[in-house]
Amino acid sequence: MMNRNLSIMTIILFVASCAPFEEFDVEKYNQLIDGVTTSIFKVIPLFEAKKFEDARKELLNAKLNLAEAESVVETQKPADIEILRTDIAAQKKIIRAIELFIDAEEFFSKYEDVRVLDIYNKYIDKLINARNEYVDGYNLLLEIQNKLTNNQEHLEKYQKTIEELDAKLEAAQDPEFIKIVIINTYVSKINPSSVRDLAIQLIRERCIQEFGTPCEDDVERATVLYHFVRDNHEWIGDPSSFEVFQADYIQSPQVTLKQRAGDCDDQAVLLNSLLESIGIPSGFCFGNTEGQKLLSLADADHAFSSIIIDGEFIIADPTCKKSELGETCFPKLMDANWCIPIAEFKQLLKAST
């Protein structure tokens, strides 16, 4: 019985030794990987042009080519299989990075008219995560740069892309662009239509109370609205979980009216909304109460309103409970403030998108 089993084993080994050996198809593998990189470099200009559906379709081609390349490697099991597995792992990371870039650009494109700090910070985080994933893939390719015939060409292309992505990230963090985002975070809360009825009611009732006659000009109307915000809303700080100029907590006009309280930016938003609701041009202002020069908006520690009469700004700071229009309770603020008309800012925002 033992001899019979040995004979069967001998036959099996003989047949196995005669089976044709499937040699690793290097040319096919290289063609597939070239297809991966070709698709990747087609994808980048597509998502830059906001053609997100086309970008995802092209990226699918990269995934299919990579899946076939991986199947070739795992089926044929060449001698340098670990090197090829590293190559495939690198390509997977790069494809994943491109997916993240597409997601980031599509996410941000949905908020072109609402580019506020919360949205902006999420966008930057997405870009950074995508870049890091891309660099991880590139670094894996560096580990095997001298062990694959087509690796050097791919490395040069990927290195160039990293430089382009870094430039994009730098541009997205340009101080002027960030300034626009910060201002829009405040201006986007201004809602004239929500307070128009209130503004009209205040003008009708309080002009006669304050001036003895109906208001005759925008300065008098603005004074009535300014006094309403100043005298009926106390200063209350933001929740402690929010940091100024990072994810500032800014109330809508309705919330400030309901709570009869808010900090400087909340009261400025309410006043600007009232002014704009009856056609009085207004501005949003930032300043430093210690007189520190505003090198950027991060140097500001105070926000307030202004009315614009004949092209001139008149300060309107309702958190200063004893101040009239044109005055402030922070003397050094007069030398360290910056204002932008709401209408001008909306034009600036439109030009930046």
Summarize the structure in words.
It is a single chain. The chain contains twelve helices and six strands. It is α+β, with helices and mostly antiparallel strands and 353 residues long. The strands form two sheets. It has a four-stranded antiparallel β-sheet with strand order 5-4-3-6. Strands 1-2 form a two-stranded parallel sheet. The radius of gyration is 32 Å and the shape is elongated. The N and C termini lie far apart (85 Å).
**Helix run count:** 12
In the predicted model, the low-confidence regions spanning at least 5 consecutive residues are: 1-21, 243-247
Tell me the span between the first and last alpha carbons.
85 Å
The biggest sheet, with number of strands, parallel, antiparallel or mixed sense and barrel status, is:
4 strands, antiparallel
Overall number of strands: 6
**What is the assembly state of the chains in this entry?**
single chain
Q: What CATH architecture label of the largest domain applies?
A: Roll
Number of domains as seen in the coordinates: 2
> Which bin fits the share of residues in helices?
55-70%
Shape: elongated
- Gyration radius (Cα, Å) is 32 Å
Strand content: 5-15%
Question: CATH topology of the largest domain, which one?
Answer: C8orf32 fold
CATH class of the largest domain: Alpha Beta
Structural class: alpha+beta
Strand arrangement in the largest pleated sheet: 5-4-3-6
Average pLDDT across residues? Answer: 86
